[in-house]
Every structure is written in C-alpha cells, then in structure tokens.
C-alpha cells in the first residue's frame, strides 16, 4: 500500500515534507490546483471537483493501488469526491482534523458567524488569502519559533471554493474503512467542530496531542499513527 497525502487550505504538497521521511511506505503528496506543480491554474476558477480530479490524475499517473488516502483539514471535503472517482484504488482513509460539514452545506456555514464575516471579507475574485499573523495564531500554537516560521513561509493563497461551495459527501457512504485523527490542541478546527465531523463520519478515532499542523509540528507522532493504520 502507498500513502496519498492531500493538503488543506492555504498550503501545498510541501506541507508534508517533514512527515514523508517518517512513513513506512511510498508516499505521494498532491498539489491541488493553484499551487506548487499546479501553480499555473488560476485560483479563482478552482472547484472542489477540480481538486478531486487533481488527486485522481496523480494517483493514476503513478499507477497506485491499495492506497491509504490521507486528508488534512479542508481536504475533508475533497476526499469523498476522490472516493467516488477511484474507489477501486482506495483501501483506507485517514482524516487529520478534517473538515466534514453536513452534506450539501458550505464549510463557511459551520464556523462562528463573526469569524465567517471576516473570512468572507478576505475573499476576492474567488481567492482566499490568510494573513501571516492570523495563521500563526491558529496554526502554530504548538511550534517553536523556527518551526512556526518554516510553516508560515509555506502559506499560499487558496480557492474560495473550499469554503463557499456546497459539499458533496456521497463518497463517505462507500464501505471503505476510515480513521479520524483528533488533534487535541487544535486552535484552527477546534474541539467542537472536530467532534461534529467525527459524529458524521462514524470513524475510528485516534487522539494526537498536537495543534492543527501536526505534520510539521510533530511529524514523527503523526507518521506513527499513519504507519499503524497502514499496517
């Protein structure tokens, strides 16, 4: 089995750089449209279907089967679309503090109204841009200064579709085993929201004592969880 790693909002495939050396099997980190190897795609045009297509393209190009599909944060709304596209290639799903709102709603519908207003004001022409200061507060609470700087240097603009497009969770109805990695010090996707996602997924739950960017702040710990799931 191979690992296929899908990043969340505001990052690219390089957010997994610290984690990959700790994994026990081959790993493919996918760049979703608009960043990294797909930086030429205009972010304002990107949809959730485009994100799922990018994962499918990379998996098929590498000829991967028996995949452990790992989705972090906003990848929780891309993963089910991937499951519908290539179910025969996916053996296991692992969701790391993943956003899983009720089917047919928007991610924006699930956050505090005051925060939602600020986020919506940060969207221009279909592009969402996080500030470095805001990201430091939400994402780096368990990091030392150097690690936080390294993480923040990888921030990227993102498609607002990850926040404002209605989600399609039909892929989660497939009989593919799934595990939810619950991050107990997460200040971005907070405890209440993680518990809502867990309830919707009915997944096995593994607790990890880290903040939101566990693959950067505690790559060895997260890899140990993924390696155990991989078997």
From TrEMBL:
Q: Which domain of life is it from?
A: Bacteria
| Gene3D superfamilies noted in UniProt | alpha/beta hydrolase
* AB hydrolase-1 domain location: 3-224
- Molecular functions per Gene Ontology: catalytic activity
Q: Which PANTHER family match?
A: AB HYDROLASE-1 DOMAIN-CONTAINING PROTEIN-RELATED (PTHR37017), ESTERASE_LIPASE_THIOESTERASE DOMAIN-CONTAINING PROTEIN (PTHR37017:SF11)
- Name of the protein described by the UniProt record: AB hydrolase-1 domain-containing protein
The species is: Streptomyces rapamycinicus (strain ATCC 29253 / DSM 41530 / NRRL 5491 / AYB-994)
């Amino acid at each position: 089995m191979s690992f296929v790693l899908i990043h969340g909002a505001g990052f690219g495939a390089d957010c997994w750089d610290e984690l990959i050396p700790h994994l026990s099997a081959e790993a493919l980190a996918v760049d979703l449209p608009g960043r990294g190897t797909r930086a030429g795609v205009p972010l304002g045009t990107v949809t959730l279907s485009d994100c799922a297509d990018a994962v499918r393209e990379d998996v098929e190009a590498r000829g991967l089967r028996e995949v452990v599909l790992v989705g972090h944060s906003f990848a929780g709304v891309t993963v089910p679309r991937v499951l519908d596209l290539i179910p025969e290639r996916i053996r296991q799903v692992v969701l790391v503090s993943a956003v899983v709102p009720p089917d047919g709603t928007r991610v924006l519908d699930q956050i505090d109204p005051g925060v939602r207003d600020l986020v919506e004001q940060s969207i221009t022409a279909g592009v969402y841009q996080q500030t470095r200061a805001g990201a430091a507060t939400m994402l780096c609470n368990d990091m030392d200064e150097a690690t936080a700087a390294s993480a923040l240097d990888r921030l990227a603009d993102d498609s607002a579709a990850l926040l404002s497009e209605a989600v399609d969770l039909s892929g989660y109805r497939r009989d593919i085993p799934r595990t939810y990695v619950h991050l107990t010090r997460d200040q971005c996707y907070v405890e209440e929201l993680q518990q809502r996602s867990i309830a919707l997924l009915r997944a096995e739950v593994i607790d990890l004592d880290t903040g939101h960017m566990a693959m950067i702040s505690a790559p060895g710990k997260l890899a140990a969880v993924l390696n155990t799931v991989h078997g």
